[in-house]
Design a protein that fits this description.
By secondary structure, the chain is an all-alpha fold. The chain folds into three domains: 1-99, Alpha Horseshoe (Serine Threonine Protein Phosphatase 5, Tetratricopeptide repeat); 121-177, no CATH class; 183-273. The chain has helices at residues 17-29, 33-47, 52-64, 68-81, 88-101, 105-116, 122-138, 142-155, 162-176, 183-192, 196-200, 204-228, 233-275. It starts with 16 loop residues before the first helix and ends with a helix.
Length: 278
Amino acid sequence: MLMAPSPASPNSSYYSENNVLRFADYLYEEGDYERAAGEYQRYLILSYVLKDSIFFKIGTCYQLAGEHHRSIYFFKKVVSLFPHTDLLTSAYHKTAYSYFALGEYDSTEQLLRNAVKMNPSQVDRERLACMLGYVLLFQAKWRLVSTLVESLSVNHHNDDFDPCLAKLKASYQEGISLSRRSPLLSSIFSAIVPGAGKMYCGRYIDGLTSFVLIGTAAWQASSGFQDQGSRSQRGWIYATLGGILWVGNIYGSSVAAKIYNREQTDGFLTKIKLEIRF
């Protein structure tokens, strides 16, 4: 742990650029990332020199503080102002992570593809490719994930990459084997037997309620027509009500299947997001 900086001599300025940098480093080590970012920016102003490492450090501070929009701004500055820096690949990687954390998966995918095209080292290429695999996973682009996993399995050369690849493979297999329900089948089931589609989606109480309500309406309509024929007011009222409930139940069953699939996917992706480490 760094000690809080103090002036080097009675004549040295506490606000000199070196002391500001020391104080920023101290705040960073203490985990006070937003204040550290402010001090690093003050250092840039005092030093009159644009340094890639400082821009990178500011972006990292904001990323660790959860300020992802700000972190993206500073990492992009590293890319645009220092196109030949050794930090270029790391800046792309960290920018992609901030986009990923914001749920902007299309932007993350595009950024990673651009980074891979810049011919990084083999280790960095594999790291970027693994992250790309997870981004594709979160977009349910299963075929692209499968192609990427097969390519990495054949072409990777870094043993340290094996755990990441193994985890990506396992996540992909779990994703494609998730339990899903067909909205079309759910609708057909409910068209044949009211409520059956909702039961197919695991919503047993809703399904039973639909069956009872539509069945009761049908029974009342049938009873009315049997008693008074086609002029039965009660028969037409309950037939109309039952028809509306029946059509609504068919549509609701389709929606129930979509909700079921989304809940399965969201639960899977939430678990993966907690497990992965970029």
